[in-house]
């Protein structure tokens, strides 16, 4: 949270720290006013708010709408909380992560949230219960960055001796318009689990989520051990191709967004865990940026061209089109009129951008530009 104070107003704005650092750096240099179109007579307060809103409405949103992910099998999180707090404070990979997903945290309902609380992150747990039949090991959790998302809900939870899953729905502060929300499912599969049973359970979980939220971006991640699920999700892409435990790739991430949308690298293990931590930074480009403008051709019916076409038709001897066959007469006359329209009436090309609104017509744009120019001139 950041406060901006003036003589009569106080603004409290919740922006990601990345944007605030960028805006403060720009505002320390007066020459940036001309670059961002800031009026010279605008106070520092209003310059700050103006620039922040400008950044939020520009392509800078792309970096903050995508999700940086930390994924790993920590093998008990209680003895690694202090190290994790240090990482989230001093290491940019952890500090700027949108959310962190950990498997095998070894927690039960008897452990309160305050024991593993991390500043600026919200904890979502999927603990083992008495009904699950598990007495040790397993369980999943998420740490969600408060500056990235504060609107989330638990969609599904499963815990048994062979398979665990925890699905959450996320509505970040900034989300590409092609997605309604981001659904993340954490998965842990026991090394000695029956592969067929686990695959059936996972398939049912994925089908339930996909049918309930067809327009959402789906991520399925966690420790799959040696269970292969590629044939269950044939339309998904597996993003992790680095070894996560010795020379084996056990921690995987599947997504329903086609292409290599994440740049993956490994980080050092947390404590004595035998799995490397996976950092995934997004390379996804919004559909708005990938779509090219559409070029359309329209006829420009100006007064001069219309008068010229009118004179042409007045000089036409229409009796030559008389024919006993009304069908032939209609076709001939229509082609004649079309020919002179194409010759006399000029055409103009229009570029329609994917973010263009049909109700924003030319006159409205000109009024917006006039208002902006009047504001910049101090009128």
Automatic annotation (TrEMBL):
Domain of life: Eukaryota
Gene3D superfamilies the UniProt entry points to: Endonuclease/exonuclease/phosphatase
PANTHER family hit by this protein: ENDO_EXONUCLEASE_PHOSPHATASE DOMAIN-CONTAINING PROTEIN, REVERSE TRANSCRIPTASE DOMAIN-CONTAINING PROTEIN
The protein's name in its UniProt record: Endonuclease/exonuclease/phosphatase domain-containing protein
Species the sequence originates in: Holothuria leucospilota
Lineage: Eukaryota, Metazoa, Echinodermata, Eleutherozoa, Echinozoa
């Amino acid at each position: 949270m950041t406060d901006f104070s003036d003589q009569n107003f106080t603004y409290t704005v919740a922006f990601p720290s990345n944007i605030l650092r960028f805006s403060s750096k720009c505002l320390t240099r007066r020459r940036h006013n001309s670059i961002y179109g800031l009026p010279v007579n605008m106070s520092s307060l209003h310059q700050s708010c103006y620039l922040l809103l400008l950044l939020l409405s520009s392509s800078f949103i792309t970096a903050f709408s995508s999700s940086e992910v930390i994924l790993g099998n920590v093998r008990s999180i209680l003895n690694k909380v202090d190290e994790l707090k240090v990482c989230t404070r001093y290491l940019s990979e952890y500090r700027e992560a949108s959310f962190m997903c950990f498997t095998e945290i070894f927690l039960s309902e008897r452990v309160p949230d305050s024991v593993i609380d991390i500043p600026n992150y919200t904890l979502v747990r999927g603990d083992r219960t008495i009904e699950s039949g598990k007495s040790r090991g397993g369980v999943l959790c998420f740490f969600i960055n408060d500056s990235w998302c504060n609107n989330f809900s638990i969609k599904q939870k499963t815990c048994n001796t062979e398979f665990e899953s925890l699905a959450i729905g996320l509505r970040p502060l900034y989300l590409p318009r092609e997605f309604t929300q981001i659904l993340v499912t954490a998965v842990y599969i026991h090394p000695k689990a029956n592969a067929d049973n686990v695959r059936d359970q996972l398939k049912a979980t994925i089908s339930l989520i996909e049918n309930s939220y067809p327009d959402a971006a789906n991520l399925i991640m966690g420790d799959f051990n040696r269970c292969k699920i590629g044939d269950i999700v044939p339309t998904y892409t597996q993003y992790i191709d680095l070894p996560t435990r010795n020379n084996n790739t056990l921690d995987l991430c599947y997504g329903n967004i086609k292409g290599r949308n994440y740049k993956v690298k490994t980080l050092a293990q947390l404590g004595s865990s035998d799995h490397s931590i996976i950092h995934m930074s997004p390379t996804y480009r919004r559909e708005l940026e990938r779509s090219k403008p559409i070029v359309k051709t329209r006829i420009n019916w100006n007064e001069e061209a219309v008068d010229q076409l009118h004179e042409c038709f007045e000089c036409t001897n229409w009796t030559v089109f008389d024919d006993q066959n009304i069908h032939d007469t209609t076709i001939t006359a229509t082609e004649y009129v079309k020919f002179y329209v194409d010759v006399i009436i000029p055409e103009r090309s229009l570029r329609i951008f994917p973010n263009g609104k049909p109700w924003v017509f030319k006159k409205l744009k000109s009024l917006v530009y006039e208002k902006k120019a009047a504001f910049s001139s101090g009128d």
